[in-house]
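Throughout our pipeline, every protein is held as a single compact record rather than as scattered files. The record that follows is passed on verbatim for readers who wish to inspect the format:
___
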Amino acid sequence: MSQIQELHKQAMDLAEAAFTAKLRGDLKQANEVSRQAFDKESQAAALIANQLDAEPTRSVLHRSAATLAIDCGELQAAERLIAIALSGNPPQDIAQELKDLFIKINLRPYLERHGLTFDEEKLRNLTVDKQSNLAKELLRSIDEDGAEYFTIKTTGQSGMSQSGLARFVDTTPAAISRLIDKVRLSDPTVNNLPPCLKPFAGMRLAFAEYSDTKGRVIVEDTFCAAVVEYYAKRSKPRQPRGNVKAQQALRLIQHLGMRVFIHQKTGWNKALTGRQKRLGY
């Protein structure tokens, strides 16, 4: 394993340990371990900073280090990492995420320098209004056990909420969140992810624009299918009988495919959607 890979692996393990400490309520331990994770990931990013053709690994590592820097309150370090990443040739989706991080850091100071009041309540209201409008473009269905499905009316693109996906495979929302972070922050070229998750390394994994009215993230259907396979076949079971529910979920989606399965849940129909568009509703 190369030095970059080893440092990145150590950083991700430390980040997961910090997350676990935070869940336990041990904030001091969480902060200490988060800083260790930031230090390791910064070292990994520095080793590849001058390799401008090493994309998307270069930008993924810098994005990961910048995110960890923000978590640690090291905002100037985060800015430097973002600037270095954008000075290369990052993929478009990663570049957009880097710009979003930069805005997150600088919006308040920018407004304050220009004598403008940063009205957090107004910003929240604007965000809620946008989310409400976007939610109107979604079809939603929820099972009795809480598994939650979404389809974009105009495109048929489908997914599940993180909490719904957790219920679908019988795990916790925190476990799904950690798994998503681990995959998104993994090196797309070389990583230790299980085979079913490897194709998603470094990718966004969730709808870029859409969330429901409560602002919950919607995980894309293709990654949902990979998560089902992971929990059915490869994850360590929480119970002696194994992850029976995940195995049942895998059997459900194997024949139809995840997207068609969700379409059946939400009632999306391509022909009907086309007719609705022609009639203007």
About this structure: The longest helix spans residues 3-24. Strands lie at 138-142, 148-152, 158-161, 206-211, 217-220. The chain has two domains: 3-113, 130-279. Residues 87 and 173 are 36 Å apart (CA to CA).
